[in-house]
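Subject: Protein entry, chain in single-letter code together with its fold tokens

Category: Structural biology, sequence-to-fold work with a learned token vocabulary.

Notation: Tokens come from a learned vocabulary of local backbone shapes, not from coordinates.

Start of record: The labelled sequence and token lines come straight after this line.
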Amino acid sequence: MDKRTTQKLEETLRNIKDESGLNEYLESIEIFPEFKSFHEFFGHVLEEKHLDRSAVIKDSGLERTYAYQILSGIKENPGKDKILRLCIAAKCTLNETLKALEIANVPGLYVRNRRDIILIYAIENGLSVLEANLLLDQYKENELA
């Protein structure tokens, strides 16, 4: 998994001078296909990671029926915290999580926001939803709703 920041990737891309460099760059980065909805993207993530949908829903701590509505596209506009719960439960990378938030048209995670910093830490360190919520509580931030 490529852990370079977007800024470093952009810098590398700007320094490509020939087609062989372009090919090498394209082979080295994680590129997501175009998705029109969160449920489509998340279904792809589950398939790529060979994860069981019901296990991810259970690990997310979301109410089962509500989570199935999100993942089937019936509930079209899940909130940021619901998406984060699902992404954390699926052990998504930070890039996958940010892409999920973008596709769902909700605010991303910002490195200058205290709560978001804690969530980024939780994602990068593979914490569970429960562990992330305990960490948020420890730092007096709102738990994932």
User: Anything to note?
Assistant: The chain has a mean pLDDT of 92. DSSP finds nine helices and no strands in the chain.
